[in-house]
Amino acid sequence: MKPNVAAARDALSHLEIDDKEVSVRSKSRDFFWYSPVLKERLDHVVGDFVVAPKTEAEVIEVLKTCYAHDVPVTTRGAGTGNYGQAMPLEGGCILHLKNMAAVKEIHPGRVIVEPGCLLKDLDAACIEQSGQEIRMYSSTWATATIGGFIAGGSGGVGSCTWGSLRDLGNIIRLRVVTMEEEPRILEFTGEALARVSHAYGTNGIITEIEMPLAPAYDWVEMFVAYDDFTPAMELAEAVANEDGILIKLATVFEAPIAHAYFQRVKPHVEEGTHMVGLMVAPHSMDGFLTLLARMGGTLIYRSDDNDWERTPGPVFEYGWNHTTLRALKVEPSITYLQVRYGYPQHKELIGKMRAEFSPEVLQHLEVLREQGKVMFAGLSLVKFTTEERLDEIIRMHEEAGAMIFNPHRYTLEEGGRQTVDDRQLAFKREADPKGLLNPGKMIAWDDPNWAFDRMYAYPKMQAAE
Amino acid sequence: MKPNVAAARDALSHLEIDDKEVSVRSKSRDFFWYSPVLKERLDHVVGDFVVAPKTEAEVIEVLKTCYAHDVPVTTRGAGTGNYGQAMPLEGGCILHLKNMAAVKEIHPGRVIVEPGCLLKDLDAACIEQSGQEIRMYSSTWATATIGGFIAGGSGGVGSCTWGSLRDLGNIIRLRVVTMEEEPRILEFTGEALARVSHAYGTNGIITEIEMPLAPAYDWVEMFVAYDDFTPAMELAEAVANEDGILIKLATVFEAPIAHAYFQRVKPHVEEGTHMVGLMVAPHSMDGFLTLLARMGGTLIYRSDDNDWERTPGPVFEYGWNHTTLRALKVEPSITYLQVRYGYPQHKELIGKMRAEFSPEVLQHLEVLREQGKVMFAGLSLVKFTTEERLDEIIRMHEEAGAMIFNPHRYTLEEGGRQTVDDRQLAFKREADPKGLLNPGKMIAWDDPNWAFDRMYAYPKMQAAE
Ligand SMILES: Cc1cc2nc3c(=O)[nH]c(=O)nc-3n(C[C@H](O)[C@H](O)[C@H](O)COP(=O)(O)OP(=O)(O)OC[C@H]3O[C@@H](n4cnc5c(N)ncnc54)[C@H](O)[C@@H]3O)c2cc1C
Ligand SMILES: Cc1cc2nc3c(=O)[nH]c(=O)nc-3n(C[C@H](O)[C@H](O)[C@H](O)COP(=O)(O)OP(=O)(O)OC[C@H]3O[C@@H](n4cnc5c(N)ncnc54)[C@H](O)[C@@H]3O)c2cc1C
């Protein structure tokens, strides 16, 4: 079963192929380097060639051909993932979906789209056709694909209202191609969606997506400043708990994040400023300003009315993992954690973690709805020193009751709840019998007895040169 | 200060006046008779004449004229209120708003409308112009006005998602005319909205309304049947807690409500059937059916696909106070309570009340969002025997921790939280110095030291003949 890469590449040469070394290398990488841990382990990883099918039929041809020649296939949207999700650990074929980007149908409340469509292009099409937009998007809206968001993302801007991407109702239908001798085309709805959503493309290629839509508004984007952390956190929570105030984003930045890392915000805040970033529907602004007056806090920026010499750009590009990006650019030793502060202990837990770790770990919180409750997702900024210390920080969070989705691991399980997703595994058995799809990302497939007592290291990973 | 009704009527005779006895009597009544307590006390109440202004200027003229002649003015939308809200306890002028029903402007997310517009006409205009609809409406959507809803209502179909009418953001702006020597026109937003919303027209006349809109969908209306009460209640709660499933209604009917009182449903249920009524967005149906399969329950009706010989009509016309209406029609001794089952004790409290009172009191629950939490409003059906027993039932609810908004009282305070709303009272002092607007409805105005130890009886109420 040794892969015959050359044979597969040749058999596919009538398709759009890229095998120029520099560009194959760049298309083999994602944002894994946010993690110093992954940076050390994955930096050398590179595929053999890139193929960019134009149709589902061409996807099938790629999968069938690579199956015949035992060549691994790693799917790529835009490669903005953070866990090395899109990196071909064993090399092989990179299936690039940039040519499958059509918005096929738009209806009231839903859209049908190909996976390679950029989130921003999808929104533009829906807005133009009927003033609608997707319920939520990753903060990489401008560069990421909808397919990559579903296969690799978790939620984002909009999750303060609609919950996470994998909550019931946030994906309507997925069309999936399997990697078998004769690839099959399957349509998934309901429970079956969980087989392939957030499966990193390890058990099928998503070729068509049906997503719910919400009305598009001219969201008013804002920054609110506080001298203390707790009232900042409480504003974000309170606005999300006001059922009549429609929001798309509520982010909390512990001081000195705004001052230290947000260049365009810096002139307007102090080092000690804690800040809340918000997107509020224009017709909810009266309600919001009423709440703000009740709760205190200084509105330092609103997108529809301000005198900033240099405006900050979209406020959501300060939130979610863009906070980390901005911090990294200023201070390269920064990395991050993904924390779940579940209701009703969320605020207490956050207080504990701050007391324990600030400023080594700075709180960056995103309001998230979970099972109908407003809670916080933490994308804490961590001043990295050693892997041991990072692991210790993680352990102390877990011991306190704050679940960690470890972004310093490249497997589904370690980046998730450290348990096997049986639905994904069972479907991989069916859909990828040779285990060629994005190899090394599902521990349960490689090593069912893995104990999660240390970081998993994929045995068949390419050797570093 | 004796009212000079004849003088006022004459001075207004160039306006649209109705003083035919039968129709003045009918326009002096609302749905107070749902309450046997109010029926006994208010049945004789009648105004002197009805005037129906066509413009705000005419409203001002009516108020100025009645002020000059000390004539009480009771505003009327459609008279579908339940607390005798629109009944002229002292007689006088009935200000009927049917001629002020224009939809003035529709924008993304908001509408500007005159108060006399029927809820259903407002929705029709918004749907036609831009596929939008109001966030919530009383189940009297087909007959009630938007002004009456704001001045007298509390929430309804849509409150499972958007909360109550008076939550921040659910009313954007109100334009109000005062009853002074020279009536003023005021514009209220933010905190000031609370002065006149749900004030029964006791301190000003609302002449223009700006409301938020939500997208209009072809809501799928459903009935789900259960053999047990608890799983029915749990489905309603669970669907509201699924952040990705968009709903507009989730109602629970304890057995035998569906069988005993819902004629068109009866053939499809047993006496022991507990039922859930739902409105779900079409693009959320996949998520909903997935949840339903997880939780159990039999889908006996869906509006978009059924083989019922006689369809039930809009499902929301089984919910909110329409449940009471349907029960009353079959069993005239039925009346009702309005109960708040607050999170997180809601289910436990409901269980207690059922154990204590069923079937004398049958649970009819509406999912409601309150401060971001899913809880239940109860519009319990009560088999009325005596006023003493009714008071006892109320007392036992309150002792258990279930707040009661007593629908057997005609004052703002007794139908509310039994406390004076200082904002409303203060504004009444300013806007209605002679106390002529809807007299007898605000205890704080008449008798600031009232102790709420028994039912308030307005001293200047018309004598029954
Ligand atoms: C600055 C920054 C901010 C971010 N913010 C967020 C955020 O707010 N929320 C969030 O969830 N993520 C966030 N991310 C992670 C990432 O950007 C998103 O998940 C993004 O949506 C991924 O899309 P992509 O097209 O880049 O996917 P890729 O990185 O190309 O792929 C992601 C995974 O999906 C697989 N895949 C891609 N397409 C398919 C397909 N059609 N079928 C099967 N598998 C497929 C890939 O193999 C890979 O495993 C952020 C990342 C960065 C760098
Ligand atoms: C079967 C049934 C079901 C119901 N369901 C609900 C429900 O789901 N939710 C709910 O909240 N209510 C409900 N109600 C009560 C009532 O129908 C609603 O509140 C309705 O919206 C009132 O509108 P209306 O036009 O009939 O108002 P009216 O009854 O005419 O007036 C209500 C009050 O508002 C005042 N008022 C009216 N217009 C103005 C104005 N422009 N300016 C100042 N004051 C004004 C009146 O003086 C009166 O005090 C129900 C009633 C019935 C009979």
From TrEMBL, chains A, B:
<dbReference type="InterPro" id="IPR006094">
    <property type="entry name" value="Oxid_FAD_bind_N"/>
</dbReference>
<dbReference type="InterPro" id="IPR016166">
    <property type="entry name" value="FAD-bd_PCMH"/>
</dbReference>
<feature type="domain" description="FAD-binding PCMH-type">
    <location>
        <begin position="42"/>
        <end position="216"/>
    </location>
</feature>
<dbReference type="InterPro" id="IPR016169">
    <property type="entry name" value="FAD-bd_PCMH_sub2"/>
</dbReference>
<dbReference type="GO" id="GO:0004458">
    <property type="term" value="F:D-lactate dehydrogenase (cytochrome) activity"/>
</dbReference>
<dbReference type="InterPro" id="IPR016164">
    <property type="entry name" value="FAD-linked_Oxase-like_C"/>
</dbReference>
<protein>
    <submittedName>
        <fullName>FAD-binding oxidoreductase</fullName>
    </submittedName>
</protein>
<dbReference type="GO" id="GO:0008720">
    <property type="term" value="F:D-lactate dehydrogenase (NAD+) activity"/>
</dbReference>
<dbReference type="GO" id="GO:0071949">
    <property type="term" value="F:FAD binding"/>
</dbReference>
<dbReference type="GO" id="GO:1903457">
    <property type="term" value="P:lactate catabolic process"/>
</dbReference>
<keyword id="KW-0285">Flavoprotein</keyword>
<keyword id="KW-0274">FAD</keyword>
<dbReference type="Pfam" id="PF01565">
    <property type="entry name" value="FAD_binding_4"/>
</dbReference>
<dbReference type="InterPro" id="IPR036318">
    <property type="entry name" value="FAD-bd_PCMH-like_sf"/>
</dbReference>
